[in-house]
Design goal:
The complex is a heterodimer of chains A (399) and B (311). Chain A is mainly β and 399 residues long. Chain A is built from two helices and 35 strands. By secondary structure, chain B is an alpha/beta fold. Chain B has two domains: 180 residues, Nitrogenase molybdenum iron protein domain (Rossmann fold), CATH 3.40.50; 126 residues, Nitrogenase molybdenum iron protein domain (Rossmann fold, 3-Layer(aba) Sandwich). Chain B contains eleven helices and eight strands.
Chain lengths: 399, 311
Amino acid sequence: MKHLLATTSALAVLLGLAAAPAFAEEQTAWRLFVSDHAAPVVHALDMETGKAIETFNVKVPTSLYRSDSGRTVFAVQGKGDTISVLSSGISFGDHGDHGDIKVEAPKLLDVTFEGKKPSHFVDHGGDIALFFDGEGVARIVSETNVLEGKPAVREVATSAPHHGVAVAIGDYALTTEPNFEKPDELPVGIRVTDRSGATVGDVHACPDLHGEAASGNLLAIACAKGLLVVKESGGAPSMEMLPYGERLPAGKSTTLVGGRGLQYFLGNYGPSAVVLIDPKSEDAFRLIELPTRRVHFTVDPVRAKFAYVFTEDGQLHRIDVVAGKIDASLKLTEPYSMDGHWSDPRPRIAVAGSRIVVSDPLKSVLHVVDAESFKRGDDIALEGKPFNLVAVGGSGETH
Amino acid sequence: MLRTIGFASLMSVITLTSLNATSATAEPLKVVASFSIIGDFAQNVGGDRIELTTLVGPDGDAHVYEPSPADAVKMSKADVVLVNGLQFEGFLQRLVEASATKASVVELTKGVEPIKMKEEHEHAAEAGGDHHHHGDLDPHAFQSIANARIYVKNVADAFCAADTAGCDAYKTNADAYTAKLDAAEAEVKAAVASIPEAKRTVITSHDAFGYFENAYGLTFLAPEGISTEAEASAADVAALISQVRGDKASAIFVENITNPRLVEQISAETGVKVGGTLYSDALSKADGPAATYIDMMKTNIATIKGAILGS
């Protein structure tokens, strides 16, 4: 239930709140955190003005992840064997009949998590699981403790180093089960452990496991032949395999994002398509072909009906997840070929309230698109190669 | 809880479009009901003139339901959407927006005299222990059969507005069903009258029975408030345990839509056996004892009476 609150509260804050006391003023604040592809920095920008607030130094070029609450941004530095944490400076208080927004300066917290090859970050209801591939260990921390500068770390070790992921669900932890014969290959299943570290039930088979996301009270984990759908039902999490439909061509998802406001998942499927996954529907998989190869995709947390995909021809596509099709496309950048290394600098997408932001690392610019009209706005110039983006913010009352 | 609040403010901007009255057509009226109890009302009034889709099915919890894109498709094709209102369906506004439905969205609690949430939860909210807002209205109006009659009239009015040719049939069906409701209500009242007044306090999981309490004279205590979304505080649970130990509550019940953990905890700590399952916000599956609204009301009072008199 905590998870539901976490995933829905931001949406409600964005959408507007019930009548507040007359003396309260409404404030909207959105911040964008931008990493650089080549430099060890994280820029914080005020999206209401488009101006830079501050640039933070980290150890090596980083990936960025935001928590569900938006209060923290984690800089996962796989090649630096460390994870840094920023306070976004934006927080919300639930006062029942209205929500308060508190806006402070963003800052780099005096908290780091050290370990070999940190990879996946998963927040579930404020419990954040950080997986370190080089050790095969998950370190689980509470966001509240991190913000207080006193993170009590709970470690969950798997049997071998591997490219894995962990999710903390109440008293339980889900961790990937490595491929013992070929530890360099993807994991083969999910193990559930309780707080004592004891395994609960059998390991759930999930060959070629890569990609997980949450949507409402469901968690999906991508496997070779389908999705492992995880439900919380009071006790230990229950899991069910949802096989890819027969109508889908051969393929699999390896990256998932979860819908906000509507319960669905959006996954990659082959190089030039995405798949909409509605686990509760008889027709659970809807493939959407793209005009060219896919670069990045995300969902709109405010306008539940929409998700966005960027393709290598430089276009941003808006997906209508109800109709299951592309309903608008917008040319934003020069072509970015998917040939070359998977981690070459290419655009990334984030949604910051009423704006969709797309990074253009080779042009040192952020493109801004009005989310309502789907028309281009003013670009924001940013030195270097702006790459990963996360947006944090919303509206609330100030007193 | 914030989600419910967001919904509250946005309900004011829902355009309750009035569908143009249609003439007789071979096509059935496409009706979406938000949850199982409303679905049962709709089927009783609409009969074979409607094609009914119910979003939150048997044993489902509408407070925390997560709508899917498929639900949005169903809503986009509907002629009439029937909802409870009073912020019962936290998911509704998102779904209305995503579906871009042109259907009439009809709140069936229109005309009901709403009651406020229970005081103990309001005080807890003031102390920061709960997330309900002041003056929160209890949405579970269907737990009074008198209110169910209002729901049924509203269903008939909505169907008549959307399908004038079928109006007579809808009204006839509504009258026949209302007569059955009257008979069911008499049974409930008689059952309550057979319970000694000193024994008429019971415990359930969440505050779903305020209208039942007002209408029929039982007192319901619950660790959770009117939405299952907010968690009970330790103080709430301790207070209920104290009530049971002081012999002020005669029986405790789990609900079909909620996690029984809290109620089982109270049962374990007091030694009072759980008296059965009450159907609060949803009907049972077709093979269960509360597959229709009338069966639900009869089953609930029979369960309560059995537990109290058998204790």
